Predict the structure.
Amino acid sequence: MKKLRVVLLFELESNPPKDQQYDELFKKEDVYFKTEVEITAALKTLGHEVIPFGIYNDIEELVQFIKLQKPDIVFNLTEHFNKIHSYDRNIAGLLELLGVSYTGCGPVSLANCRNKAIVKKLLSFHRIKNPAFATYPRGERVSFKKDLRFPVIIKPLTLDSSYGISKASLVANEKEFVERIAFIHEHFEQDALAENFVDGRELFVSLLGEKKLKIFPIRETIYPSNGDDPHAFLTFRAKWDEAYQSKKGIEFVFAKNLDPKTAARIQDTCKRIFRLLQLRGYARIDLRLTPENEIFIIEVNPNPALGKEDEFAQSLMKGGLSYEELIQKILNLGLQELRG
């Protein structure tokens, strides 16, 4: 296996160290850099040279760094630039313009998947089921659209990782509906997406590949059967707060007792979506499976989190890959061609 010169690119919440040295910072038990630390360790175990680069709001610094270091590939972990999440596509586009290989999805798929309404329209056009929805831009009058039915869940239109989703996101009447949309507009400075809530099993499907696409064991969120919430769903706190998960009895497990025909339909549907949205490298698709075995797509996630404990890595390791093998496969996919 060829030794690669890998720039590990990740975003910061403030200005980076002037020397771009992260040895001491990565040694700290800081959950913020947990994934970066794990990937760095995996790359070094594989024999690659790792050069970390943290970016905040200076794009020229990144350009000069890439020109100076001349990496074989950039391992792209950025999710935003200057705290603007929709700029993740611009980072991928810049790497293309610089002529450097990079991991993960390209600017087209990142742009499409960032806007949940665009994804839903594309899926609907291709007759792939997803909940009925409506968008509510800031500054426009809010009215309850005819395709919606309560309960309705309301989200920021372009944020991921469950940002802006709490128990208050699920509304049961028009008063709550208007109030929650106003909350999204004001607190997140975002347009709002309202969609019908779908009862059923909450499943996560991990995909890896390019032309040859592989799906790994399906993950599921388990909510306590004796809970007081008849419409359980994954809030930001439920997703990221381990103490809250333990208190509420929320578990992330491998899906059991899936009918083989239903599992095959899920796999076929997710492969269609991967190709339809021009996803590349790796992605995770979140869906609901109703008691009648209907499949409703909830979210499409290009470049999902890659920490060892995250859903994507858990699925691939269950599927027979070591963490190091997963990281190497992502590198290999990034090296195949410059993203178009």
